[in-house]
């Protein structure tokens, strides 16, 4: 079903796996599948390399592009696993629908992943924290600058060996002004523009010593929605709170896995709106125990401190944090070191 053109050379021996910066090194192959004449053509796995696109391609002018983030893990017996890949498959098609991109066939998606991972298996290193980050994406390639949905697309998967996403502590600033999306917008989609739009506000807060912003709702900026690269959880006392998904917030796979693990482990979890005021009051009363982000790239990322307007708060450093509890639970499932009660693992 898939055509495979193997690369005559490999970069693997020149790659320093002990010092990987997230998303900088790519493996030897990539998957490419074109949409034209009203259908997806035969997918091809070929040597990783640059694309040649018409400068008028819609993706450059109207940002008609969506993507996914997934990881492949290697267990102690060299078996390779994906984590809930069906969720990513469904989500890329939900994102595509919102951006008027044609649905990608399921058998192409899974076949491509399996064949690509078989070819690139040596790029997946063992041990907690090591993985192969997979980036499926779709771009509108049809030439022409009329502002209408393209009739030609490229679905691709590229692979990058990964370790930690953030190299140091993460402090976040609650946004007073910026939002990921408004109701009716594209916030729930993994649309490229949702992420490009955080670079400017993130640069502003970096100047104040924060690494990320937390988007607040577009109507009032009183409610905390999502961080630039991850969903976000708050622990007040022993209660865990995260915002509900809606038009504006990404339905994160790690987010929903944390919710399921919390319920399974009798951790009190509330899925409801979280206000800036509630979190600041909890911090002032020493009841705010943790904030952590969740996402495929970041896994579970503890937040060391936060700011709002001119106030800055540091969070306690806990021995038994929920963040480390969930990270450990998730990784043991991902690396095939614990029972997979929920059926989340997918063997390649
Ligand atoms: C992921 O967690 O995989 C994402 O896609 C977030 C990305 C912006 C790094």
TrEMBL record:
Q: Name one Pfam family in it.
A: Aminotran_4
Entry cofactors:
pyridoxal 5'-phosphate
Which pathway does the UniProt entry assign to this protein?
A: Amino-acid biosynthesis; L-valine biosynthesis; L-valine from pyruvate: step 4/4; Amino-acid biosynthesis; L-isoleucine biosynthesis; L-isoleucine from 2-oxobutanoate: step 4/4; Amino-acid biosynthesis; L-leucine biosynthesis; L-leucine from 3-methyl-2-oxobutanoate: step 4/4
Task: State the EC number(s).
Answer: 2.6.1.42
- Where in this protein does the record say N6-(pyridoxal phosphate)lysine is found? 190
**Reactions performed catalytically:** L-isoleucine + 2-oxoglutarate = (S)-3-methyl-2-oxopentanoate + L-glutamate; L-leucine + 2-oxoglutarate = 4-methyl-2-oxopentanoate + L-glutamate; L-valine + 2-oxoglutarate = 3-methyl-2-oxobutanoate + L-glutamate
Q: Which InterPro entries match?
A: Aminotrans_IV (IPR001544), Aminotrans_IV_CS (IPR018300), Aminotransferase-like (IPR036038), B_amino_transII (IPR005786), BCAT-like_C (IPR043132), BCAT-like_N (IPR043131), BCAT_family (IPR033939)
Q: Among its keywords, does the record have Amino-acid biosynthesis?
A: yes
One BP term from GO = isoleucine biosynthetic process
Q: Which GO terms describe its molecular function?
A: L-isoleucine-2-oxoglutarate transaminase activity; L-leucine-2-oxoglutarate transaminase activity; L-valine-2-oxoglutarate transaminase activity
NCBIfam families assigned to the protein according to its UniProt record, in alphabetical order: ilvE_II, PRK13357.1
Q: What does this protein do?
A: Acts on leucine, isoleucine and valine.
Which family, according to the similarity comment? Belongs to the class-IV pyridoxal-phosphate-dependent aminotransferase family.
Protein name, as recorded: Branched-chain-amino-acid aminotransferase
Which organism's genome codes for this protein?
A: Christiangramia salexigens
């Amino acid at each position: 079903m898939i055509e495979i053109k193997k690369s005559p050379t490999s970069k693997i021996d020149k790659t320093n796996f002990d010092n990987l910066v997230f998303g900088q090194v790519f493996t030897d192959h990539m998957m490419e599948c074109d949409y034209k004449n009203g259908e997806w053509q035969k997918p091809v796995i070929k040597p990783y390399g640059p694309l040649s696109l018409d400068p008028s391609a819609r993706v450059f002018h109207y940002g008609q592009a969506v993507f996914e983030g997934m990881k492949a893990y290697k267990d102690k017996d060299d078996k390779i696993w994906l984590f809930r890949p069906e969720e990513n498959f469904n989500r890329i098609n939900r994102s595509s629908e919102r951006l008027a991109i044609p649905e990608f066939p399921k058998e192409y998606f899974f076949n491509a992943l399996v064949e690509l991972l078989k070819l690139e298996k040596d790029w997946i290193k063992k041990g907690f924290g090591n993985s192969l980050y997979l980036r499926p994406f779709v771009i509108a390639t049809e030439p022409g600058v009329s502002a209408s949905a393209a009739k030609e697309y490229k679905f691709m998967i590229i692979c990058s060996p990964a370790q930690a996403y953030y190299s140091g502590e993460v402090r976040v600033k609650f946004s007073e002004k910026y939002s990921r999306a408004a109701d009716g917008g594209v916030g729930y989609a993994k649309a490229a523009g949702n992420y490009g739009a955080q670079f400017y506000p993130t640069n502003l807060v970096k100047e104040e010593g924060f690494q990320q912003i937390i988007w607040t709702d577009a109507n009032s900026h009183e409610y905390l929605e999502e961080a630039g690269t991850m969903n976000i959880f708050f622990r007040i006392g022993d209660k865990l709170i995260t915002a509900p998904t809606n038009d504006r917030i990404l339905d994160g796979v790690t987010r929903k896995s944390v919710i399921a693990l919390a319920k399974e482990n009798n951790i009190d979890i509330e899925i409801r709106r979280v206000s800036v005021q509630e979190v600041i009051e909890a911090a002032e009363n020493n009841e705010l125990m943790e904030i952590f982000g969740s996402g495929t790239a970041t896994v579970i990322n503890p937040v060391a401190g936060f700011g709002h307007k001119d106030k800055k708060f540091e969070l306690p450093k806990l021995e038994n944090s929920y963040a480390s509890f969930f990270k450990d639970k998730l990784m043991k499932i991902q690396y095939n070191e614990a029972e997979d009660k929920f059926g989340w693992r997918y063997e390649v």
